[in-house]
């Protein structure tokens, strides 16, 4: 996924691309100075590079604890180390929180980052998005997904583009998507079961989601074409947060080339539809039907093409990772798995053999929805949501300065024992109760709330239904290690499973 989340995430891509070189440079120029000047547990309060340990913050606010280290370098080295480990990059945050408390500041690649983990801070930032906070502009991101992407456009265009894109992602519009996804999934699971082979849930989900999205957006169904597109979309996604240097062999170069190929394909597709050579009942057609509307009520071609790409990239990795984690968590809580299976089998029993799931069926999956929510709470597909601070402000009582980066730390909130009892337990029934506002934010909130939220929830429900009402599974590799250098937490193994058909399922 892109997710399109600049700031700290871009560093992850940078280091994925240039890890060795950066490590060397950082080691040579800074390690000695950094470690001489500071120790991990010493709290040095530096603002804009100057020590201000004694300086009180404005408006009764406090200076935020944390270590900035020497200018530019800061704690980049530690961040790289955490990211390159199988514990995942969040370990960097976890460790600092144990030293400094819930809110802390750090400096990575020259930028000051503050981690804020409270529902109050989340509310303040989300409700003032575009006013006091904004996503940082990342050149490589705009070059890769396009300047007209929802992720890159300024406020006014964002409002219009989002409004025009939103309808196909509303619940009623997703009914056809659900049926198609269900049909393909059912066939694929059957085949995998019959073959008896072990398969990676992650790889399986990545392919399923990609194919289903391309079908919904552009009615593309031909497998070899889909694989070509997927390869190019992955290259674009990898380039989004890389160094923007057009040198052959680099991720950026490969991504830009892949983008050019994708744009040529989209362009031809649009032309074929306009001249009547092809017509389909899909997202692209619904957008082209607005051709005669005033400009405020339609997307121009570059907006359309950039956002087709954005939707695919934003939807695939996120949803696939959540699917993988749901299998893992349900495997660990057999009671929750049994309760889910019971609900899903009772829904299957009321349907005719082979009939696809409808939105009505999905609405009946009350326990299923709790499993989806609990999976999203624990998996934290997007660990934190970064914003650049546009005006000096106070968050959670701490003075925050213009130009700093604040990261809404969803992961910390989702594991906060004050908000979730026994937070490390996978317990779907905790969602029987209403949660405190802004304490459950897997899809963000405010004007940038995930556009594909409904689609992701429905996809997960269909997946859980087919899996639990039709099969039991055995995980073949229980290694808890995470993928290295990844910005979305995913098991390194991809969660390989084998399937066994249930006699009492349909
Ligand atoms: C489990 C799956 C998913 C998760 C956890 C997720 C999470 C998120 C989050 C947290 C944001 C907001 C980030 C921020 O505020 O900085 C976001 C934005 C976005 N998501 Fe998702 N997402 C998922 C699936 C999808 C899908 C399936 C699609 C598209 C089909 C999608 C499209 C988008 C888009 C376009 C945005 C940008 C919205 C904007 O800036 O206005 N996402 N997602």
UniProtKB/TrEMBL annotation:
Entry keyword Metal-binding: yes
CDD domains in UniProt: CYP90-like
Parts of the chain that traverse the membrane: 20-38
GO terms for cellular component: membrane
Cofactor or coenzyme needed: heme
Cited Gene3D superfamilies: Cytochrome P450
Main location: membrane
Domain of life: Eukaryota
PROSITE patterns xref list: CYTOCHROME_P450
Listed InterPro entries: Cyt_P450 (IPR001128), Cyt_P450_CS (IPR017972), Cyt_P450_E_grp-I (IPR002401), Cyt_P450_sf (IPR036396)
GO terms for biological process, alphabetical: pollen tube development
Any Pfam family: p450
Keywords, in A-Z order: Heme, Iron, Membrane, Metal-binding, Monooxygenase, Oxidoreductase, Transmembrane, Transmembrane helix
Tagged with keyword Transmembrane helix: yes
Annotated binding of heme, by residue: 450
Protein family membership: Belongs to the cytochrome P450 family.
Protein name stated in the entry: Uncharacterized protein
Provenance organism: Manihot esculenta
Classification of source organism: Eukaryota, Viridiplantae, Streptophyta, Embryophyta, Tracheophyta
